[in-house]
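Quick one:
INPUT:
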């Protein structure tokens, strides 16, 4: 038996995008894309985040060119009440109480708050880490691919644990076509699951027992659970501009679609799907 952890998902800012970007059956009208992050309480390891959403650091990092191109393409809103530190404080959690941040991938909307958690160890895939470090001397290429190097803490490398250095862990048969992941804490409670295609080294998180319910955090492997379950891909332009590897993206998306249709008991939560987030909150 894996250990039970508590889990909630917080909205930390958002941006506006065309609805058809996430679902080619959607409208050519702008819609809200929340930036969601996971807050986990583990009985021994304490407070853990899966991503951070947006933060004030995002606006500073995108003041000048070429990074300003990113902000121009994706207009971001972050009201004070949605700031992660403000939400954590309201829950009685200080920045230094966050012991671990699991990084799904290094796009700016997922790691903008990393600098706010100086005591946390960081977990990511080795390929993702190597990729972001390879971009250090290529700021234009980095910005055009959604990476903002100024968001990385200075001692980032020293605090990093590689997910794929953890023990391989078989997933339950009902998680097919996903068969295995990495046991991030060594007790079966948090399993990192590679979700290739969207970015280099994207890492999903399977929580077998989130207070009795299995949860699968899938970051940007899909943007809309209803569209993915119905087999409708994002708009072709979105797919080509935002995927590191389109073929791998399609495969991961198709695998997720199989799971969504077959196992409604698993809460599948992307980072930007309002529908899935609201449905999950309503069932709590
Ligand atoms: Zn992304």
């Amino acid at each position: 038996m894996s250990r039970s952890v508590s889990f909630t998902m917080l909205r930390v800012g958002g941006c506006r995008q065309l609805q058809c970007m996430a679902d080619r059956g959607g409208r050519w009208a702008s819609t809200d894309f929340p930036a969601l992050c996971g807050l986990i309480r583990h009985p021994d390891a304490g407070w853990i985040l899966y991503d951070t959403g947006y933060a004030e650091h995002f606006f500073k990092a995108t003041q000048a060119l070429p990074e300003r191109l990113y902000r121009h393409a994706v207009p971001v809103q972050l009201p004070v009440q949605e700031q992660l530190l403000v939400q954590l404080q309201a829950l009685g959690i200080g920045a230094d109480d966050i012991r671990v941040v699991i990084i799904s991938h290094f796009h700016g909307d997922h790691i903008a708050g990393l600098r706010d958690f100086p005591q946390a160890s960081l977990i990511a895939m080795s390929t993702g880490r190597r990729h972001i470090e390879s971009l250090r001397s290529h700021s234009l290429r980095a910005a055009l691919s959604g990476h903002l190097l100024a968001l990385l803490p200075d001692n980032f490398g020293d605090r990093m644990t590689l997910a794929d250095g953890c023990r391989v862990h078989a997933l339950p048969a009902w998680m097919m076509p996903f068969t295995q992941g990495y046991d991030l804490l060594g007790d079966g409670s948090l399993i990192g699951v590679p979700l290739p295609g969207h970015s280099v080294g994207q890492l999903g998180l399977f929580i077998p027992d989130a207070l009795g319910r299995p949860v699968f955090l899938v970051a940007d492997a899909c943007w809309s659970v209803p569209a993915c379950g119905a087999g409708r891909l994002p708009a072709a332009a979105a797919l080509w501009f935002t995927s590191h590897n389109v073929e791998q993206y399609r495969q991961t998306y198709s695998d997720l679609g199989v799971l969504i249709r077959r196992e409604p008991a698993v809460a599948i939560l992307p980072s930007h799907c309002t529908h899935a987030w609201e449905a999950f909150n309503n069932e709590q």
